[in-house]
Design a protein that fits this description.
Elements lengths: L3 H16 L5 E8 L4 E6 L5 H8 L2 H14 L7 E5 L4 E7 L2 E7 L5 H5 L5 H13 L12
Antiparallel strand pairs: 1-2, 1-5, 3-4, 4-5
Helix pairs in contact: 1-5
């Protein structure tokens, strides 16, 4: 994947420009199932939200909860929503990736959770899916 750095840079720029059209949405993070950030874009004054999501381990927790739900016969969740005092976090499974959208409290959760339905957004995520090895989807952290 010799063109991986250019793909990653182009995707970061796309997500940064996309943020300006999403009222109440502060950051977008694409990571693997272990929570390793691959691309993040955030409004400059709210970049701390991405750091907090990564430091708190929200992505691997989402993946572990999905794995446990699936083992219990409930099926794997496509989306999880968490509300905190200073932010709302929407996580979406997009194998082998997890898309995390961080918004302000009271943001439009429907908008955040429907980003993968947006054609331009979905095309950009698909670009990254094509260059990330599929075996990352099997690298979930075991409890």
């Amino acid at each position: 994947a010799s063109n991986l750095p250019s793909v990653m840079d182009a995707l970061r720029r796309f997500f940064e420009s996309y943020l300006s059209s999403l009222d109440g949405i502060d950051a977008i993070l694409l990571s693997d199932r272990c929570g390793v950030p691959l691309i993040s874009a955030a409004l400059p004054e709210r970049h701390w939200t991405v750091d907090l999501v990564v430091k708190r381990g929200l992505v691997p927790s989402f993946c572990q909860a999905g794995d446990h739900a699936n083992r219990a016969g409930l099926g794997a969740p496509d989306c999880a929503i968490c509300q905190f005092n200073q932010m709302t976090v929407v996580q979406m499974s997009c194998q082998p990736l997890v898309v995390t959208v961080v918004g302000r409290p009271g943001c439009n959760i429907g908008l955040a959770s429907s980003l993968l339905s947006d054609k331009a957004f979905a095309e950009q995520v698909a670009r990254l899916q094509r260059v990330i090895p599929n075996d990352l989807s099997d690298s979930s952290v075991q409890a």
